[in-house]
Design a protein that fits this description.
Length: 305
């Protein structure tokens, strides 16, 4: 059930797919939405859709998660709009199967790694003081159900931006594993001061315009899968339910639980049921190494926790 008081919610990738549907639903429930989008034109179009049923006009904020300066600017803009942030949903991601060769950002990072992990990590750090100022703050990361087919996947610490192992699929799931591990680390670092969740999102039905934009061969190959995929509207409801829940991840982990059991409740499926992550996500030393590497990659921002 939604909170009685309106929440201030920031959602990345709010211009399409699940992010747009979640923003619509939360805005219609009286919550204040900050819609973070990379493309200003698509963002303005999405803002019209969100605000058509919003109790409070949503605010559009440009944010390119692959660009550290853009992330910092977005965090500054949000800080200028509100004194606290109740919920941050790190929804935006890139998974372009046509990118057969790696692309590198101006900072020297492979694009999938930069957009799907480093950008959300930096944004969460920069917004952590606003989250800490909220009475019941929450951070939601997003991973993928496709990871169930990769039980032995692990972070390639010595080759994070190495093009030698790149493929779109490998790069995407590598970054999604990092999102789970970051959620675990943040949950343990913040403890009772922050509710943390990471959603295991199944295959999502593409919007018609995104499907039409695919090369014809990919469109033909993807069509059967798209028909069987979960509608974005359904997952938007999941995002909204998680953003407004009254409990925390810790209700699933016993107070004396250790190891894997101590983290139960952070990683959830689309029905908000706790699920297991790949084995490497439970390696505390690997999580700490990932945190340190991510911190260094984004300029060692301070955290509120």
């Amino acid at each position: 059930m939604p909170h009685l008081e309106p929440l201030t919610v920031a959602i990345t990738g709010a211009n399409s797919g699940i992010g747009l549907r979640a923003a619509q639903r939360l805005a219609a429930q009286d919550h204040r939405i900050m819609a973070l989008c990379r493309d200003p034109h698509r963002g303005r179009t999405a803002l019209d859709v969100i605000n058509a049923g919003a109790a409070h006009p949503a605010i559009l904020i440009r944010a390119d998660l692959a660009d550290p300066e853009s992330v910092d600017a977005a965090a500054e803009r949000i800080s200028g709009e509100t004194g606290h942030l109740d919920v941050l949903i790190n929804n935006a991601a890139v998974f372009d199967q046509t990118m057969r060769a790696p692309v590198f950002t101006a900072s020297g990072h492979e694009l999938f790694w930069a957009t799907n992990h480093l950008g959300p990590f930096q944004l969460t750090a920069r917004l952590s003081p606003l989250l800490a100022a909220a009475p019941r703050p929450r951070v939601i990361n997003v991973a993928s159900k496709g990871l169930v087919t990769m039980p032995r996947i692990a972070i390639r610490f010595d080759r994070l931006d190495d093009p030698g192992w790149y493929s779109p699929t490998k790069a995407y799931y590598h970054a999604k594993l990092a999102q789970i591990m970051t959620a675990y680390s943040l949950a343990l670092r913040a403890r009772d001061a922050l509710d943390v969740a990471c959603l295991r999102v199944p295959a999502v039905r593409l919007d018609a315009d995104r499907l039409a934009a695919l090369p014809w061969i990919l469109r033909a190959l993807y069509a059967p899968k798209n028909r069987l995929a979960v509608p974005a509207e359904r997952l938007g409801e999941t995002y909204a339910a998680l953003a407004t829940r009254t409990g925390t991840w810790q209700k699933h982990a016993g107070p004396a639980a250790t190891g894997k059991a101590a983290l139960r409740g952070v990683y959830l499926d689309e029905n908000l049921r706790p699920v297991d992550a790949p084995a490497s996500a439970y390696d505390a030393a690997a999580r700490e190494r990932l945190w340190d590497a991510s911190q260094q990659a984004v300029g060692n921002p301070p955290w509120a926790w």
